[in-house]
Design goal:
- It contains 3 helices and 2 strands, in the order ββααα.
- The chain has 90 residues and is mainly α.
- It has a domain of 51 residues.
- A two-stranded antiparallel ribbon has the order 1-2.
- It is flat.
Length: 90
Amino acid sequence: MKGSVMRSSSPQMALPQPMTLTEVVPVIRQLPILDRLRLIRILAEDLETAGDVSPFESGKTYTLPTPYNAFGAAAILAEAMAEYQAKGEE
């Protein structure tokens, strides 16, 4: 299978079976940082060439809301934190 990580289901090397994500992630986390970065690049390139990454459209610009200059949100968060701390002191 192209693009699949395979594992053997028995010691006699029977037909390989695809690994699940829960099996792959711990193995990936054991890789050196540079190899993990290379893996990220490889996966990003695969997604870029796939062309069918929904719900995004190729060439379209999307806005990404951020907390920068959101002073009202900062005040609300500070108030919520103060209330939480006050409850913890009771």
